[in-house]
Design goal:
Chain lengths: 157, 554
């Protein structure tokens, strides 16, 4: 898919939602490598999404609060140095905050052995190094789109 | 004259024949934006030009090497990063790597240590997953058990305020090894690169960092003659997306900043410059990397003499460690990374490095496994012993392509340095976000080339093989039982100390923080000797000099 097609796909979703899809890009834990998170934030913004970008080293509670306040549709967690091990705790905290409908994806270095564990706790997708812009943007667009159809009636907005 | 005419004719004939075989639309541009010609030839007046721009190894302007014999006389140090879970496990792995031929040690602490915390301050799930949990002088003693600190040089991944070095010195004191015998490098002393790129290592505010680094250099100058207190890092910025030319330009600008800061404290250039070292990335852009190192070496030789006022030739030596680039490695068919690492390593060797870390092929999948780390060491051994890459000094010197590219890279590096200088020097340029902006733009530009297929990556956007060749070795994770034991040992260590002595030592750090005439690093060493932990020292220095926060913008 070309960049223009990605913009179209996000545009279609925006029309259906009545606003632009909103994605939060964050890093939890201890790692500070942010080349990937910056690039991916740019991918989403270029495609027409609204992006909330946080500093690294976020507390899980803070991520949940901010996601709630900003009413985000998806959270992308970037992890290059084992911080993905904290994602199950993030998923629990989201559920406790009644935000199980938020799409959560993880990007970065995730060993194969941990992929099933993350999927098991509700992570929708894991984007490994080398994943293309198209794959990431269309992947998130589809995931938000699916959730929107399922959850549309339950939401106030 | 006749020769020149003949050369002109030959060149024209070549150009005509070339044009029948290759479209004029075929342009090649490297990552730094320099157009790569298909052919490079010598200019007139070759002798003067040679002496001016290349010279002999060990002589001005050092393009061909900082020593007369380079690798022929002394091979580079093999400095593999080791970091694994607990100090006991570090010690076991270290002995294995030393037995496999490593000639210098490297110490990689756990991410919790990088962030300035003790192991009881973070989620225990993350402990020891990326490096060793070293918090106390006893941890350091366990790590280095069986190695004489007076004989083995230790390279510490030890950001400001240099707590690991303080623990190394406290351990040396316990073992009656004089400080003057302790050798090695403070490998992560470049806070500017942490503020800009590798934020994980950023512990202190920008202004606080400036103070601590200068005091650290002064302390090493007085007490640690075999210690290199400064490693200027171009690696982080290149990994974050800077082009090779930009990364070199930023590193040289940073070195000038650190030198100016030492000068402002009244130090003489020949007191500190001989102990400046550099640390770079080696990407797979093979000739570009070789040219980057040659150009940087020549430029530093001149900067040290003309800009910084060095008289001692040792001050002009561009000593550098380099690491093969993790960014170039692919998750797809990870064994292919062995070929990539070997290619990068050759570029580093031809570039004239003094010390090297070659990456494990599985770094892109997880923290490196033991088998992969051994292959990385073997790669260096093969290149040295089987391929004989050490036999000739600067083997590509005189190559039309390499010499032209070296000059062009110098031009690009200088351009980067000029932009930094116009912004008021490196400290001001990073505080204002200029360097971060330039790196972000370069990262996007490279990504665009990968997206469009202009930059091919085998197995990712070209030559895609659906048959997957994933990892062959099992993932290693720290044993939670060992981590629990370590937490218990840490608790016992803290309880056994004298609180009075500890608090007095921490308060001495605070006093030094408030008084520019005192050396704060001296008090940090004293605190480690008084039993202070890594996290306690970091917390105190952060309280007094400010917590490090990078500029955040996507």
């Amino acid at each position: 898919m070309e960049s223009a097609q990605l913009v179209d796909a996000v545009g279609n979703l925006s029309r259906r939602m009545g606003r632009r899809p909103k994605v939060m890009i964050t890093k939890i834990g201890l790692d500070g490598h942010d080349r990937g998170s910056r690039l991916v934030a740019g991918f989403f913004r270029d495609a027409g999404m609204e992006v909330i970008y946080t500093a690294p080293w976020q507390e899980i509670g803070h991520v949940v609060n901010q996601a709630l306040e900003e009413d985000v549709d998806a959270i992308g967690v970037s992890s290059l140095a084992t911080d993905h091990l904290l994602v199950p705790k993030l998923m629990t905290a989201l559920r406790d905050a009644d935000m199980a409908d938020v799409v959560v994806v993880v990007g970065g270095i995730v060993p194969d052995e941990d992929e099933a564990m993350l999927k098991g706790v509700g992570v929708s997708e894991i984007f490994h190094p080398g994943t293309s812009r198209e794959h990431i943007v269309s992947g998130i667009t589809n995931l938000i789109s699916e959730k929107w159809v399922v959850g549309e009636g339950d939401r106030d907005d | 004259m006749t020769d020149n005419t003949n050369m002109d004719q030959a060149r024209q004939a070549w150009a005509q024949e070339y044009a029948t075989q290759v479209s004029p639309k075929d342009r090649r541009v490297n990552r730094s934006g320099i157009e790569i010609d298909p052919l490079y030839t010598p200019e007139d007046g070759a002798t003067d030009a040679y002496m001016n721009s290349l010279g002999f190894p060990g002589q001005e302007p050092r393009t061909r090497g900082i020593y007369a014999s380079m690798h022929r006389g002394r091979v580079w140090s093999q400095r593999q990063l080791i970091g694994l879970a607990t100090p006991q496990q570090y010690n076991e792995r270290m002995h294995e790597i030393v037995n496999a031929g490593a000639t210098a040690l490297s110490m990689i602490p756990c991410n919790s240590v990088y962030r300035g915390y003790d192991i009881d301050e973070v989620d225990s799930l993350l402990l020891g997953t990326c490096g060793t949990t070293i918090n106390t002088v006893e941890d350091m003693a366990v790590c280095l058990d069986g190695i004489s600190q007076a004989e083995m040089s230790v390279s510490l991944n030890d950001p400001l305020p240099f707590t690991l070095l303080a623990l190394v010195l406290a351990n040396a004191r316990r073992q009656n090894v004089p400080f003057t015998a302790v050798s090695g490098t403070s490998n992560q002393s470049d806070y500017i690169s942490h503020f800009v790129a590798n934020h994980m290592f950023l512990r202190l505010s920008l202004e606080g960092s400036r103070r601590v680094l200068t005091d650290h250099i002064i302390y090493a100058n007085r007490h640690l003659p075999k210690w290199n207190p400064v490693s200027v890092v171009g690696q982080h910025m290149q990994q974050a997306g800077a082009t090779p030319a930009q990364a070199m330009g930023f590193a040289l600008s940073t070195a000038i900043q650190f030198a100016d800061d030492c000068q402002a404290k009244g130090m003489e250039p020949d007191d500190y410059l001989p102990k400046f070292t550099f640390f770079f990335d080696i990407s797979i852009s093979f000739f570009e990397e070789i040219a980057k190192f040659r150009a940087g070496r020549r430029m530093w030789s001149r900067i040290a003499r003309d800009r910084l006022g060095a008289k001692d030739p040792r001050s002009q030596r561009f000593k550098f460690h380099a690491q093969t680039s993790g960014v170039d490695l692919t998750r797809q068919h990870p064994l292919n990374n062995i070929a990539r690492v070997a290619t990068q390593a050759i570029a580093g060797i031809f570039g004239g490095l003094q010390s090297m870390h070659s990456d494990a092929y599985d770094e892109v999948l997880s923290t490196p496994t033991k088998e992969a780390a051994k292959i990385a060491v073997a790669t260096q051994n093969i290149l040295r012993e089987e391929a004989h890459l050490c036999d000739v000094i600067d083997p590509l010197g005189g190559s039309y392509y390499v010499e032209t590219l070296t000059d062009q890279m110098e031009g690009q590096i200088q351009e980067t340095m000029d932009r930094v200088a116009e912004a008021g020097g490196m400290f001001a340029a990073v505080r204002a976000g200029l360097v971060q902006k330039m790196i972000g733009e370069s990262a996007q530009e490279f990504q665009r080339k990968v997206d469009s297929g202009e930059q091919k990556i085998v197995g990712v956007n070209a030559f895609i093989d659906q048959e997957d060749g994933l990892r062959t070795t099992a993932l290693e994770r720290p044993d939670s039982k060992l981590i629990d034991e370590q937490l218990k040992r840490f608790k016992d260590y803290k309880e056994a100390r004298s609180a009075v002595r500890l608090n007095r030592a921490l308060d001495a750090i605070s006093r030094a923080a408030g008084d520019e005439s005192e050396n704060i690093f001296g008090e940090i060493v004293a605190a480690a000797e008084a039993g202070a932990t890594h996290g306690e020292i970091c917390a105190r220095v952060r309280r007094d000099l400010g917590f490090g926060q990078p500029l955040i913008a996507a």
